[in-house]
């Protein structure tokens, strides 16, 4: 589904639905696509990333999920980006090749984070090998230093990258360093898409010139965030702030209770009524107390 459209607006970092006994549950992906499009107004997905527990899945499971999202998203979604990053190069290359063969609209990769690249050149060399397995589709770098520990500045990484990786299309920037992000925009806005990945700070990133956003909360707060994007586009900053404050109030509430992928699965399950199941060990399911409190907060805010 190589899409001619440049990636913009909201992209949901998809959750991986699982059965109660911890197997991936492909049977609900069709329903999930319809929910995102019809109820949240979100037409782009980022599959097998952090929220999707991509690094906790087997290669076979990652391929099955990628295939299901591409198949069920056909003629409904604009972009299905498959995250193919892995701790070892052969696996990342295999997943990249697979994503291209099944017709994904793009691929993305994090930096490997057990043996880490220590400078820009080694990171680019790794990413270049991965991207070259999918030469017909766009490649995005997934910058998430809080989880990878790879802190190479994106501004530095982007300098000259197109010569090394011809399919390089942009960055999913999941970090709060807005100075680095702003420099990326300033130097590359025409050439690359710069997608922001810290949902609670999206309005600030829009002010810096973000092309769009990728995140977990767009699964269930997509509609509200789309209203914020619309208000921002109309230069109605006060209204845009109201929307950001509203989603921020929910996130601030759940952060205090303890928030991560498991809690995202629980929130999505009660919001969409699609069972997302438990996370995979070492993550543990959200508590009943969390679910009750988060649901009550959501109900009070989204009236
Ligand atoms: C660390 C983390 O999981 N960050 C999320 C955010 O969407 C995050 O859940 C949100 O901003 C709430 O903190 C995304 O950046 C991750 C993401 O897009 C992904 O699942 O690949």
From TrEMBL:
<dbReference type="GO" id="GO:0005737">
    <property type="term" value="C:cytoplasm"/>
</dbReference>
<keyword id="KW-0963">Cytoplasm</keyword>
<dbReference type="Pfam" id="PF00701">
    <property type="entry name" value="DHDPS"/>
</dbReference>
<comment type="similarity">
    <text>Belongs to the DapA family. NanA subfamily.</text>
</comment>
<feature type="binding site">
    <location>
        <position position="51"/>
    </location>
    <ligand>
        <name>pyruvate</name>
    </ligand>
</feature>
<dbReference type="GO" id="GO:0042802">
    <property type="term" value="F:identical protein binding"/>
</dbReference>
<keyword id="KW-0119">Carbohydrate metabolism</keyword>
<protein>
    <recommendedName>
        <fullName>N-acetylneuraminate lyase</fullName>
        <ecNumber>4.1.3.3</ecNumber>
    </recommendedName>
</protein>
<dbReference type="InterPro" id="IPR002220">
    <property type="entry name" value="DapA-like"/>
</dbReference>
<feature type="active site" description="Proton donor/acceptor">
    <location>
        <position position="142"/>
    </location>
</feature>
<comment type="subunit">
    <text>Homotetramer.</text>
</comment>
<dbReference type="GO" id="GO:0019262">
    <property type="term" value="P:N-acetylneuraminate catabolic process"/>
</dbReference>
<dbReference type="GO" id="GO:0008747">
    <property type="term" value="F:N-acetylneuraminate lyase activity"/>
</dbReference>
<dbReference type="InterPro" id="IPR013785">
    <property type="entry name" value="Aldolase_TIM"/>
</dbReference>
<feature type="active site" description="Schiff-base intermediate with substrate">
    <location>
        <position position="172"/>
    </location>
</feature>
<feature type="binding site">
    <location>
        <position position="214"/>
    </location>
    <ligand>
        <name>pyruvate</name>
    </ligand>
</feature>
<keyword id="KW-0704">Schiff base</keyword>
<keyword id="KW-0456">Lyase</keyword>
<comment type="pathway">
    <text>Amino-sugar metabolism; N-acetylneuraminate degradation.</text>
</comment>
């Amino acid at each position: 589904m190589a899409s001619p459209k440049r990636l913009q607006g909201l992209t949901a970092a998809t959750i991986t639905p699982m059965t109660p006994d911890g197997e991936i549950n492909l049977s609900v992906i069709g329903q999930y696509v319809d929910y995102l499009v019809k109820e949240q107004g979100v037409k782009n997905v980022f599959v097998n990333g952090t929220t999707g527990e991509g690094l906790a899945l087997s290669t076979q499971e990652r391929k099955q999920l990628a295939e299901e999202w591409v198949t069920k998203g056909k003629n409904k979604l604009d972009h299905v980006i498959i995250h193919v990053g892995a701790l070892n190069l052969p696996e990342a290359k295999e997943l990249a090749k697979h994503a291209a063969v099944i017709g994904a609209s793009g691929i993305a990769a994090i930096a490997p984070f057990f043996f880490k690249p220590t400078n820009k050149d080694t990171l680019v060399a790794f990413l270049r090998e991965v991207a070259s397995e999918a030469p017909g589709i766009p490649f995005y770098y997934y910058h998430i230093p809080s989880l990878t520990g790879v802190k190479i500045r994106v501004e530095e990484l982007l300098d000259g990258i197109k010569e090394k990786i011809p399919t390089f299309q942009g960055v999913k920037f999941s970090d709060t360093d807005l100075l680095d992000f702003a420099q990326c925009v300033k130097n590359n806005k025409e050439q690359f898409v710069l997608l922001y990945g810290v949902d609670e700070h999206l309005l600030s990133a829009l002010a810096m010139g973000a092309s769009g956003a990728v995140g977990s909360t767009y699964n269930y707060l997509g509609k509200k965030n789309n209203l914020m994007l619309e208000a921002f586009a109309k230069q109605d900053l006060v209204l845009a702030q109201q929307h950001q404050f509203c989603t921020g109030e929910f996130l601030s509430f759940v952060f205090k209770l303890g928030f991560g992928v498991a809690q995202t699965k629980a929130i999505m399950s009660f919001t969409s009524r699609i069972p997302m199941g438990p996370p995979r060990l070492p993550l543990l399911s959200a508590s009943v107390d969390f679910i009750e409190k988060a649901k009550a907060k959501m109900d009070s805010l989204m009236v």
